[in-house]
Amino acid sequence: MAVLGLELLAEMVARPPRTTYKTADLGAPTFLVDEQVVCRHDFTVMNRQGHSLVCSHYVPMGCKHYPVVVYAHGNCGSRGDADVHVNLLLPCKISVVSFDFSGAGLS
């Protein structure tokens, strides 16, 4: 019995349950951060293994040349975890790209 518990614990650490959500859970594609209109542009890229990675780019409306921070979520996270960083970085004129790793979230 104890061995099964340890195996389950090891499996949860090595392969935690996949975070599930809908794109709508990310909120509206246009919203305000510090009185600035921000747009979330969702897109998909293909990795070398042929897997689709679902991504979001958060950028102030009308701005095309902001530097960007790429947010990579933790072991059992998703691109939605970038919210805190979006709210912190956009007022500093830094856009944010977040993505779901292959096998995580919607990827």
From TrEMBL:
Gene3D superfamilies: alpha/beta hydrolase
Entry superkingdom: Eukaryota
Family matches, as InterPro entries: AB_hydrolase_fold (IPR029058), DNA-binding_regulatory (IPR052920)
Stated name of the protein: Protein phosphatase methylesterase-1
Source species: Hemiselmis andersenii (Cryptophyte alga)
Upper classification of the organism: Eukaryota, Cryptophyceae, Cryptomonadales, Hemiselmidaceae, Hemiselmis
